[in-house]
Design goal:
Elements lengths: L8 H8 L5 H7 L20 H10 L7 E5 L5 H8 L3 E6 L9 E3 L7 H7 L3 E7 L8 H7 L7 H11 E11 L7 H6 L2 E3 L4 E5 L2 E11 L2
Helix pairs in contact: 2-4
The structure holds S-adenosylmethionine.
S-adenosylmethionine binds next to β2.
Length: 214
């Protein structure tokens, strides 16, 4: 598999058609927005599309793949991936929906049963706008206290849950909240340079992927 991601405008426009598809609409309809925060607008979900592109290009055929989303909140995209044949699971400290594939759980403090059951299981683990929301450099500068204390532990946990050769994908607006050294120490190698994603004429998200070192 290639260690780079092709995401030009043509591919972007093509992939965005997913959001308009009958299949996506059907999944989306299962999850009414419970708190009016934007998730109820089907266009919101286009922000997830780079994750599908990254999985297809870095991991290959998605059918049958074991996938974990950290901080899924509304599991619309995960459910859509499952409709394409993945075996996706989600965790969230405060999920808006819990169903057979979404569990209420904290990535910093997973329970032992979850770890025992899922150790070495996932082909792909991804997160979108979850880790960055814990990190607050302004707070750190003002108070001298970190809000995000568990970086190393989280990366090691993710590594433990991934298969050998598994991939961790971050789609976030702070691609650099972990240092490369923290990834390397947790057993990852970087396989994709940070790549800004263009949405609505501005770049604000970055996609980065890390592979478990074999
Ligand atoms: C800004 S929302 C993003 C939701 C979703 N990923 C998206 O892009 O629409 C961040 C989510 O991360 C969840 N979260 C925060 N801390 C978490 C933790 N320690 N473990 C699991 N989920 C967490 C929150 O409950 C929230 O649903």
């Amino acid at each position: 598999m290639e260690n780079y991601l092709l995401f030009d405008n043509k591919l972007y426009e093509n992939k965005m058609k997913i959001i308009k598809s009958q299949k996506f609409r059907k999944v989306f309809a299962k999850y009414p927005d419970k708190d009016g925060s934007g998730y109820g607008d089907i266009n919101y979900w286009k922000y997830y599309v780079p994750i599908l592109v990254a999985i297809e290009q870095l991991v290959g055929k998605i059918e049958g793949k074991n996938i974990l989303e950290i901080g899924c909140r509304y599991p619309v995209f995960l459910d859509y991936l499952n409709s394409l044949g993945t075996k996706g699971q989600g965790i969230d400290i405060s999920p808006r929906y819990e169903n057979r594939f979404v569990q209420k759980m904290n990535i910093s403090n997973l329970n032992k049963q979850f770890i025992a059951k899922n150790k070495g299981k996932f082909d792909v683990i991804y997160e979108r706008l979850t880790f960055s929301r814990w990190y607050d450099d302004e707070h750190e500068l003002k108070t001298g206290k970190k809000r995000f204390e568990h970086k190393e532990k989280i990366l090691k946990t993710i590594n433990l849950l991934l298969k050998r050769n598994g991939t961790f994908i971050l789609l976030d607006d702070r691609g650099t909240m972990f240092t490369l050294k923290q990834f390397v120490d947790a057993g990852f190698e970087k396989c994709l340079f940070e790549m800004p994603i263009l949405f609505g004429g501005k770049t604000w998200n970055v996609i980065v992927a890390y592979k478990v070192v074999n």
